[in-house]
Amino acid sequence: xxxxxxxxxxxxxxxxxxxxxxxxxxxxxxxxxxxxxxxxxxxxxxxxxxxxxxxxxxxxxxxxxxxxxxxxxxxxxxxxxxxxxxxxxxxxxxxxxxxxxxxxxxxxxxxxxxxxxxxxxxxxxxxxxxxxxxxxxxxxxxxxxxxxxxxxxxxxxxxxxxxxxxxxxxxxxxxxxxxxxxxxxxxxxxxxxxxxxxxxxxxxxxxxxxxxxxxxxxxxxxxxxxxxxxxxxxxxxxxxxxxxxxxxxxxxxxxxxxxxxxxxxxxxxxxxxxxxxxxxxxxxxxxxxxxxxxxxxxxxxxxxxxxxxxxxxxxxxxxxxxxxxxxxxxxx
Length: 332
Fold this sequence. Notes:
Layout: H1 4-21, H2 26-43, H3 46-51, H4 55-71, H5 79-96, E1 130-135, H6 144-149, E2 154-159, H7 171-179, E3 183-188, H8 200-217, E4 224-228, H9 235-256, E5 264-269, H10 271-279, E6 285-288, E7 305-308, E8 319-324
């Protein structure tokens, strides 16, 4: 029989899935998916928490998140409440596993010109050839030096459509990260958690928009733009609408480059998505999503970037990543 924590996780994931099926706004969807990823990762930590007799506080925090989602009914979620509930869950997990973050992370103080950023803990050492990074939905300009001080070699930032409630990468932000010695990786994400989103028409539109935004930022030629497939897609979906979408991105890139694209294409998604799209020559770079329950996760080892949960080293929401070799990082 599932434990109370497992039952709470499953119920909350089910509620998140229902909200995602209701076509939420981009900010709401982003928060829901971030919390879903935390819960999926948490499923793999239940036994450890039970052995530590530390499951109760995490169960309560997960229940708090579920209550925020369930209480909204058919109206839009309160994003502030959702953000706080998700943050409380991540803190409870960290504290229960002995890697606690401060109870209320203080906002990073601005760093005066010429001053070193405040000292922060370092991430764990990696095997040779790997580097630490993070991906973040918000502008990292003010955090750029703190990110570098935390041992992060790169930041993944987003290109988006105008309807998104989150900021797209700008040249100003890219220059700030470059000045701090941090590389930038870019990804396009829209309603990428729904199979119905993917089509040739959408690929042409989003490929063109991503290419234009890359040029405005000053992203160097020869670097990739990743595109998200943010769900556990089936083989049929890959061979159908997702294939059409990536074929159209290639066409859009070629058109924008007058027959020769300046940029290559990458994918963020499951091991199955990374494997299939690479094998069919539609992507040159892969970013493996952290959802271990998605198809092909364990078997796929040829990633350029691999995502993981937040390490709580910095006082804002982000996921961790590791990268190897040429992963598409750039400076401007």
